[in-house]
Write a structure and sequence with these properties.
Elements lengths: L27 E6 L6 E5 L3 H8 L10 E5 L2 E2 L3 E6 L5 E9 L11 E7 L8 E5 L5 E11 L6 E8 L10 H5 L6 H9 L9 H4 L10 E3 L11 H9 L3 E7 L3 H4 L15 E4 L2 H12 L4 E4 L1 H17 L9 E3 L15 E5 L6 H9 L11 H15 L10 E5 L1
Parallel strand pairs: 1-17, 3-12, 3-14, 4-11, 14-16
Antiparallel strand pairs: 1-2, 5-6, 5-8, 6-7, 7-10, 8-9, 9-10, 12-13, 13-15, 16-17
Helix pairs in contact: 9-10
Length: 399
Amino acid sequence: MLATDALWFELPPDRIATEPAEPRDSARMLVCKRSDPGFLEHRRVTDLPEVLSATREPGRDPSSDLLVCNTSRVARARLLGVREDTGGRVEGLYLRPSGLAHAGGVGEAWVVLLRARRFKEGAPVRLLDRDGQPAPVVLRLLQRESDEAGGWHVSVDTDAGSGVEASAVLERYGRPPLPPYIVSARKQRGESPDRAEDDARYQTVYADASRTGSVAAPTAGLHFTPGLLERLSASGVSRASVVLHVGSGTFKPIEAGVVEDHDMHEERCSMPAASIDAVRGARAVGGRVIAVGTTSARTLESYAIALERRGEGATPPEELGTRLLITPGTHRWRWVDGMLTNFHLPRSTLLAMVASRLDPPDAEPGSRAGLDRLLGLYREAIAHGYRFYSYGDAMLVLP
């Protein structure tokens, strides 16, 4: 069992990135190896094709390396509004469709997180458009969501004659769901927290418009450009896709005293048969499966466990609801050999997952070796001026 306090580290405030690197792939990349504690390189994400080539076993076919990317698209899930009954400002985050949508005469309904005082059932919240003007949409509070602190089921009511369909409200009036620390930092500097460029920059270049559903970006993927993807392909590296719609559980801090007691929220993920075949094919010839981000890694491991339980020759599920919590000293990695990831918040499940990826192969259950090494790498990154969190730099953990 791992005490949550063990996942703590001190980060100077100026190391928190509030702006993305430009161009995307110019972000710095700390490269390490699970199998070699002495290996450490300071590179750029644009160097990824060369790094993979240089660290490949001699004579190994380049096409045996496989990058797995989460192609979920981020919804414009951040909402601003005003209570029509009190005039109070409201900030919210769309989470998912509500199960109340087809009950009690309610049309479109959502589950949202709301930040305001003294909410009550029936309270009307008028959304604001992206210029801060009243939009022809009212969210009416129906009932609390028991599984989400601050969560509410709300009906989505559009003004008669507005011509606005409820299904288009998020795309039209929502904002990119930037992490609160970025919004706060911009406000403290007297800047607008909302910028037009965030629409594109808080989205991966390979996001699938038909797979919209994340309420936070799969941030490791933000570093890729079309040019980098072309260079990776030209160097022989293959690519496969998965989908995990990032929910509030991904960035929720661990509040339990012991990490393993943390209640993981369920997130929906899917992995097409072609991607499963690509992973199995790469591993069959000794290739490296590199997950782009913790969400891709979680999907890969969730599917590997599901198929392991179903038995040889089982048909893969079309979709999974995963609550997989990966912690150091406990998880046996099945399909993930390496990971490209950002630098994560203290006391987070994401930090615990990356620490597990650094566990030595012969680690005993309950070992802290991977976590101790990760915290040492974080100290190295801080000392060398790396930028942290969603808009920050990257870390490549090789086998």
